[in-house]
Automatic annotation (TrEMBL):
The keyword Protease does not apply. PROSITE patterns: GGDEF, TPR. Keywords: Membrane, Signal, TPR repeat, Transmembrane, Transmembrane helix. Residues 1-27 form the signal peptide. Its EC number is 2.7.7.65. CDD domains: GGDEF. Residues 448-581 form the GGDEF domain. It catalyses: 2 GTP = 3',3'-c-di-GMP + 2 diphosphate. InterPro entries: Diguanylate_Cyclase, GGDEF_dom, Nucleotide_cyclase, Rev_trsase/Diguanyl_cyclase, TPR-like_helical_dom_sf, TPR_rpt. The chain crosses the membrane at residues 387-409. TPR repeats lie at residues 68-101. It comes from Shewanella litoralis. This is diguanylate cyclase. It is an enzyme of class 2 (transferase).
Length: 584
């Protein structure tokens, strides 16, 4: 009997061990599949989705940690498809399984991406502040560094390049090469931040270091991204032959990964690169590839770039109608991109301001608390010190009042910054058009004339290419300074973007506006450029339009002025054309 019992126990123990091993093996297999899906998510989206659908069918067999990770990756799938509300639902589902710290932080960072997709940028920046506070409290540096790297991708989407530079430096200092994967990502983001901030020489060196390190450590995709970074630096420096070689190298490697987003961007750069190399057939080949893509948020920039390339190619081939059509599309995409950038910038400024205000409020509360404690202590020690306390209270009140006044002034300063162009100090496009729209409506109400003058600096890109962006910035500021000294008090001077400016002119008919435009053209021609450190000539093309009684908004005037400006460019530049003359 005892022998049988022992045999039964041994048999039962073996069965339990086998079942435990099977469960562990199955769990390991699921984790491996989740890893595969996550790796595919950036390179082969369809394979990633197929893996996730397979895991979803066996959800009941997964652990809570695996379920939270699964739904987090499902949210990423929806983000790729621009299904932001579905992504948010998936993230809420992932949160319901009480994920560990590393997954939890990633979920909250994807929530930031959802806010970006829904264009709620202020919410996105607020969420970023919350995440940064959470990350700083982590004790595990490996989780902290990995989270910083994911945070950097969000800052890149929001175009917050200064923050991106700061966080990537912090991640590199914490990691110090201990984790090669984290080191690669941090090095890449640090290089990209320098590129976006136009520190081209440093960016080129950083991309080279990143490429070499990541290739040696077995991270070929990041190495390819670094090659593309070097190519963009060469393109920005107008070294188009070197840019071509690097872009083609990166393209060949990206095709192995089936990384469509990166492939599309390289195609767009090759379209422009081949134009500058004078190889128009190849430029058109790559540009047409991108132009076939649907108009979606992640395609706006590449489609703008290739429409500019196609416009330039058509112009060189004498096909001016096509050139104009492509340029109209490029301008529309530029406006959409510019509007997105302005919304992001304003949201970033307001979020930063709210953060400062919150800190000040906390400091004020702490001061109030300390003040109350002092009051109690003084009262208990000696009632006669009430006069001293009153004096102290008045002093602190005055201090708080000054603090509030300072905050109010700072808020006004931020609001003013949101209305002005950062380089030239004149109105930015959105503010200028809003103010002009009000003036236009008033003018139409009382049947007063209203004119629009659009100006574009001729061959401005050549100034940047030959003498550098610092000289280009000097040119824009100098031109702005000259025009500001000429306009009337009620004229609205606006930078429309790049080297294009507008003057909205209430109570000015077409003849007066055209005469003023000619004066502006002559003054700009006479600018002495030697103070920039280089000797060159600045010229400007101008287009003028005037409101008719049928105009219901400012948009038709701007469009007619833009057509006149385009005709001025085609007529040899450095001239003024009115819409009526241009279309005659």
């Amino acid at each position: 009997m005892g022998t049988l019992l022992i045999r039964f126990c041994i048999k039962w123990l073996v069965t339990v061990l086998l079942l435990s091993n099977a469960v562990i093996a199955n769990a390991n297999e699921v984790d491996a599949e989740l890893d595969t899906a996550e790796n595919f998510m950036h390179t082969d989206t369809q394979s990633a989705i197929a893996t996730l659908d397979s895991l979803l069918s066996q959800e009941s067999e997964l652990s809570n940690n695996q379920k939270s990770r699964l739904y987090m990756l499902i949210s990423v799938k929806h983000l790729y498809l621009a299904e932001y509300n579905k992504a948010d639902i998936a993230l809420e589902r992932a949160l319901s399984f009480n994920p560990p710290d590393d997954i939890l932080t990633r979920i909250y960072l994807y929530k930031v991406t959802v806010s970006i997709g829904l264009k709620d940028y202020k919410q996105a920046f607020t969420q970023l502040e919350t995440n940064l506070a959470r990350i700083h409290n982590y004790q595990d540096n490996s989780i902290k560094i990995a989270t910083y790297n994911r945070l950097l991708n969000v800052y890149l989407e929001l175009e917050a390049y200064d923050e991106m530079l700061r966080i990537s430096q912090l991640a590199l200092e914490l990691n110090q090469g201990k984790n090669p994967k984290n080191q690669c990502y941090s090095m890449l983001y640090y290089s990209v931040a320098n590129l976006r901030l136009k520190q081209l020489e440093q960016a080129s060196s950083l991309f080279s270091d990143t490429e070499q390190y990541c290739a040696e450590q077995g991270f070929p995709l990041i190495a390819v991204m670094s090659v593309k970074g070097r190519a963009i630096v060469a393109y920005e420096e107008a070294d188009y032959k070197r840019a071509e070689t690097l872009f083609l190298t990166a393209l060949e490697d990206y095709q192995k990964f089936k990384f469509e987003v990166e492939i599309n961007e390289i195609h767009s750069y090759l379209g422009m690169t081949y134009f500058y190399l004078g190889r128009f057939q190849q430029a058109k080949f790559f540009a047409d590839k991108v132009n076939q893509l649907p108009i979606a948020p992640n395609n706006l920039l590449v489609k703008k770039r290739v429409n500019e390339a196609l416009s330039l190619v058509a112009g060189k081939q004498g096909q001016y109608d096509k050139a104009y059509q492509y340029q109209v599309v490029a301008n529309a995409l530029s406006l959409q991109i510019l509007n997105e950038q302005k919304v992001k910038e304003n949201a970033y400024q307001m979020a930063r301001f709210d953060s400062v205000e919150k800190n000040r409020e906390n400091n004020s509360l702490m001061q109030d608390h300390e003040l109350l404690m002092q009051q109690k202590d003084l009262f208990m020690k000696d009632k006669s010190s009430s006069i001293m306390f009153s004096t102290l209270l008045v002093g602190v009140s005055v201090g708080l009042l000054l603090l509030l006044i300072s905050a109010w002034l700072q808020r006004n300063q931020f609001m003013k910054q949101a209305q002005r162009d950062g380089l030239t100090g004149i109105y930015n496009r959105r503010t200028g058009q809003e103010l002009a729209e009000v003036e236009f409506i008033e003018a139409q109400t009382v049947s007063e004339p209203f004119s629009v003058l659009l100006m574009d600096l001729d061959l401005f890109k050549n100034i940047n290419d030959q003498f550098g962006h610092a000289t280009g910035d000097w040119t824009l500021k100098k031109v702005t300074s000259v025009i500001e000294g000429m306009i009337r008090a009620n004229d609205i001077f606006t930078r429309m973007g790049g080297e294009e400016f507008a003057i909205f002119m209430p109570k000015q008919d077409q003849a007066a506006a055209a005469a003023f435009a000619e004066l502006v053209r002559i003054e700009i021609c006479g600018i002495n450029t030697r103070y920039s450190g280089h000797d060159f000539t600045i010229t400007v093309s101008c287009g003028v339009s005037t409101a008719s009684k049928d105009d219901l908004s400012l948009d038709p005037l701007i469009q007619r002025a833009d057509l006149a400006l385009y005709s001025a460019k085609n007529n040899g530049r450095n001239c003024v054309l009115c819409y009526d003359d241009a279309m005659a």
